[in-house]
Amino acid sequence: MFTTLKIVFIAVVDTGLDLEISFNHLLQGIGLPSSIAHLLWLPLPMLLVLTASLIGVLVTVWLERKISAAAQQRIGPEYAGALGILQPVADGLKLLVKEDIIPKKADSLLFTLGPILVLIPVILSWLIVPFGQNLLISNVGIGIFLWIALSSIQPIGLLMSGYASNNKYSLLGGLRAAAQSISYEIPLALAVLAVVMMSNSLSTVDIVNQQNTAGLLSWNIFRQPVGFLIFWICALAECERLPFDLPEAEEELVAGYQTEYAGMKFALFYLGSYINLILSSLLVSVLYLGGWGFPIPIDLITHSLGQSPNAPVIQIIAATIGIIMTVFKTYLLVFLAILLRWTTPRVRIDQLLDLGWKFLLPISLVNLLFTAALKLAFPIAFGG
Amino acid sequence: MTISTSTELICFLILSSVIVSGGLGVVLIENIVYSAFLLGGVFMSVAGLYLLLNASFVAAAQVLVYVGAVNVLILFAIMLVNKKEVMKPIKGLKLRKFFSGCVCAGLLALLFRVNIITNWATPGPQAIGEIATERIGEHLFTDYLLPFELASVLLLMAMIGAIVLARRDVISIELETTKSIQENIINNSTDNVLLNQSND
User: Fold this and answer.
1) Residue A245: exposed, middle, or buried by beta-carbon count in 10 A (0-12, 13-18, 19+)?
2) Any alpha helices (H) in chain B, and if so which ranges?
């Protein structure tokens, strides 16, 4: 009784594609009870998102190789598959079969635990990334705050691996990574707070819905241009991308906390940093570029074509457009990050900390105050 | 027993055993770095308990503040001052350990007694789940405004105190010297701060 009511309720409220309900209906049609159907459903979106993020990493690595080659007037990977598209797979396989070395004087327990602690929070954060109204693992109420909390675990893993390597360069790299990520977390959270203030919710789905009332014009980037820049700079710093890759600055620290790592453990760091880059780009597109929204609202198009937005075909087309838009915006930002990496010089550590504490922090506080004032003054445009 | 309640029970047992054994590890392990990492594990498990109690915002705040800030700072401090130092043997260490063990055991006994004689069965208010965030905000800006503001003043004082302590050498030097402040820090870094003070 209750479940049918709930389904009816959801069908009335949501117009988007909901795969979970369809899947449950399918299994109940075979004759399974709803609790078993729910249990069978649970691992599916997780596996899907894990696979999607791994494929995303492969694509990003290929892009990085090709774009860096173009920036340096080389050709880049060419022989592995068409246009070298299988090169990242070859890289991954190479790392898989390499010998797993633990230095003799390293602390083997912490040495092994470090990379795992770096990777897990990043993957866990994919919980809240929406690709459509119902196309996310869990629409938890604390949404974006969960990501901020989880990303603060990462420095512990970095400190752990830096310490356990028993190497001065590693320790310095780990300390730098922790200092960097603590100092850039604050402006990052304040920039997110301004967005949250406008959408009255921490949930990523609500944040996107609030931006998609008038298509392109209602995206947050036009209402929060300063916040967008702060968030992007902080996201790059959190991902340790150039111009902020101080923790692994080759010329000073060999490779920072990764110096002693080889094989699969190194691959975990590698995966972690690229998944983090994609995740940050996804969240920039969710927070500032309208998430799965098409520049012209889908509802407007279906109405002008005289179609009902609840028809199954329209729902599938809308969901597909949503996923394509999310991925397109994300890879646009990844492209920007790669271009930045191969065209900008690295900042010094004191410049990095000065930028974080003395420039970005005050600016983001002013941005927050300004947003609050605008919200009170123009409640229609700034989500009253 | 349904699937959800049994899962909850299993999670509770795992989390509480991690908290108890981790807490013991923090106190008993000699290597201070291990203690600090274990403390992080304990904080994470407490966040897990909050999640089981349907308080997701408090759980996330616990992770952000305790694991992300407090524990990282502890680790930072340990790793920056990781000086190998031969400790002086303390007189009567075993006796001291015995007495502090007795105090801890007494506290534990007291807690057990409270646990047994309190009637826990009284039904509290329903867990409000997702709207808890809004409710916390409402309370912070109405009836808990004064404690909230007092806490912020306290934090400000702590911050100013930390800055004064950290830059003591810069404040005590005369600023008329042509040396830049950075240079002075580098030059004085090897000196003993307390010795300097007694000379002044």
Assistant:
1) buried
2) 3-28, 32-52, 56-62, 72-80, 93-117, 132-141, 145-166, 168-172, 181-188, 193-199
Task: Give the C-alpha distances (Å, rounded to integers) separating A318 from A208, A210, A308, A322, B114.
Answer: 15, 18, 12, 6, 59
pLDDT for the residue A12: 37
Mean pLDDT of chain B: 80
Find out whether A253 and A172 touch, Cβ atoms under 8 Å. yes
The model's pLDDT over A302-346, given as tens digits with 9 standing for 90+, comes to 778 777 777 777 778 888 888 898 899 999 999 999 998 888 888
- Axis crossing angle, helix A312-343 with helix A263-288, rounded to the nearest 10: 120
CB A326 within 8 Å of CB A223: no
- Taking CA atoms, A210 is separated from A196, B70, B179, in Å, by 10, 35, 56
Contacts of B60 in chain A (CB under 8 A): 142, 145-146, 148-149
pLDDT, mean of residues A43-60: 86
Instruction: Provide the pLDDT confidence category of residue A22 given band limits of 50, 70 and 90.
Output: confident
Give percent of chain A with pLDDT exceeding 70: 95
Tokens of A317: 């087309």
pLDDT for res B171: 57
Which residue from A59, A121, A6 is spatially nearest to A274, judged by alpha carbons?
Answer: A59
- With contact defined as beta carbons under 8 Å apart, do A175 and B76 qualify? yes
- Contacts of residue B38, defined as CB under 8 A and 6 or more positions apart, other chains included, come to B22, B25, B26, B29
CA atoms of A6 and B41, how far apart (whole Å):
38
CA distance B66 to chain A (A): 10
Tokens representing B120 are 């826990």
**Chain B residues lying within 8 Å of A163, measured CB to CB:** 33, 79
Are residues B76 and A175, on separate chains, in Cβ contact within 8 Å? yes
Structure tokens at A26: 């399918």
User: Hey, how many other C-beta atoms are within 10 angstroms of the C-beta on B163?
Assistant: 11
Q: Which of A148, A150, A159 sits opposite B79 (nearest CB)?
A: A159
Render pLDDT for A237-257 as a digit per residue (tens, 0 to 9).
888 887 887 777 777 777 778
* Spatial contact of A102 and A112, defined as CB atoms under 8 Å apart: yes
Average pLDDT over residues B19-27: 90
What does the domain layout of chain B look like in residue ranges? 169-200
Instruction: Tell me how many degrees the CA angle A300-A332-A338 measures, rounded to the nearest 5.
Output: 170
In chain B, which residues have their Cβ closer than 8 Å to the Cβ of A142?
56-57, 60, 133
Locate the chain B residue with the closest alpha carbon to A141: B130
Q: Pick from A188, A193, A198: which is nearest to A219 by CA?
A: A198
Q: A89 pLDDT exceeds 50?
A: yes
**DSSP track, A114-143:** HHHHHHHHHHHGGGG--SSSS-SS---TTH
Among A55, A26, A188, A166, CA closest to A108: A166
Instruction: Report residue A43 as tokens.
Output: 């691992």
Q: Which two tokens stand for residue A360?
A: 């970005």
Spatial CA neighbour of A100 closest among A89, A110, A111, A91? A111
Highest mean pLDDT among A5-19, A267-281, B158-172: A267-281
Q: Give Cα separations from A222 to A215, A228, A364 (angstroms).
A: 12, 9, 16
